[in-house]
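Thread: quick sanity check before group meeting

JM: Hey all, I'm pulling together slides for Thursday and realized we never actually wrote out the predicted structure for the chain we discussed last week. Dropping the sequence here so it's in one place. If anyone has concerns about the input, flag it before I start.
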Amino acid sequence: MTIKNIFMSAMCSACIMISNQCIAKTDLENLPSYETWLEHASYLEKFWLHKDARGVPEGNFPTWRCNDGTLRNQSLCPYERDIGQMQHLTGIDFVRMNTRQTFAYGALFNITGNKEALRLHMAGVKFLLEKIKDKEGGYHVLLEKGEPLGWPKGAPFTDYRLARTSQDLSYVLMALSMNAYLTHDKKIIDELREAQKYIYDTYYDKEKGIIRWCFSDTYFDKKEQVELVAMLDQLNAYLLLSYRLMPDTYKAEWGKIIRQTIKDMNKNFYTKKLNRFYGCTHDKSCFDTENGRHMDNGHRVKTFWMEYLAALALNDNNLANFAKKGMIQTLNGALTKNKNDWYGDDLQRGADWWVYAELDQSALTLALSNDYDMPDTLNQWVHDFTDKEYGEIKNFGLKTWFWRNGFHSTEHALIGTILSNAIRAKQCTDDKCRNNNTTTLHFAPVDSNDTNFTPYYYSGDITDVKRDGQTVSITFTNVDLPKAVK
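JM (edit): ok, ran it. Output follows.
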């Protein structure tokens, strides 16, 4: 072996050498089985199918519940001593949590085929379009007893729309993008196009190349804020998942929107010296690499991951290589020494639930193409973090509040299910092994003859289709990275 090969082997953990390149080869014991993922999804469903999760009317999903699933009812839960200022907000429902829950039901149906999850997903979409959509433009972002709320008394403005952040508006569309993925409903796709146009027409500052945060100061937000997530979450919430669903006459335009958003993000927030993104740029605290706003490993890897998925869909090799490098560097820095847990930031503090999920999902994506050796972090999540008594993930404090709902846990389960099977299949040496590592996902197409579906962001060959009334179960083989959108 040459000096070069010895060096490259030392740089990779569990890799094989192909043409003098180090190719990662994931230890398959680090990937939970298909059955384990389905069991994990059933524990997530336990929390989200609880009677108190459904809302009154159904679809008006509550922001605030106790960790046993019951409604909080504007009070502390029996086992709590204090939840700080949040207690004063428990009478208000945040639409971004309603729509994340709607997404969660769709993701759970996609994994398990549970029609009750699908029914609640559809109820959430119906409530969104009938109650949350603002006839004067955009969407409401706060509710009280199922009705739109301007803002708590004392707000220093009269026009409620001025207080809405561009991020909150993007999160409304998370529910619709999941619905479009499951159904291919043209009406929902048109709604996404209309909403995207509203957000960019209203908030995009072409001269500065940023999406503005909001237009009036509130208790939570200031109009001078310049935030990475104002742009990143347009990609994350709806632009990427709905890209290949756009009508052929609009795909090129949608692709331009994605490309310009990434170009602006990289121009305004990326630092080559640190190979990372600043979470904001409006004051000097934003540039504190240890404690600055959104300088955690979650936002860092999520930004690179979104850009990587976008690059593959756009067939942009330069962007793909840039994003891959950023993902690998972030993952390497975030992985703990025992390689079964993640650090949340450069100070090596523990990762929050959503940071852990984003790191797992990014690592799985790279492991799919042998660019990263998947560490043993998934087993801890599905075995140790899962609440088997009440459902959901139990290790990260409150299960529901105005910044936590079912999106991250269910997306993690969906990607974990798809890519664990796909990575195993790639290491198979016979057809029996490959057939045992196919993935079946469930959809609800508005056109019963429609089978033009993908395994979430990724690509795959359809080998079996089973219909059951209005739903269809599709089995995928050869699951791989996203293909270019044409």
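AS: nice. The longest helix spans residues 248-269. The mean pLDDT is 92.
JM: adding both to the slides.
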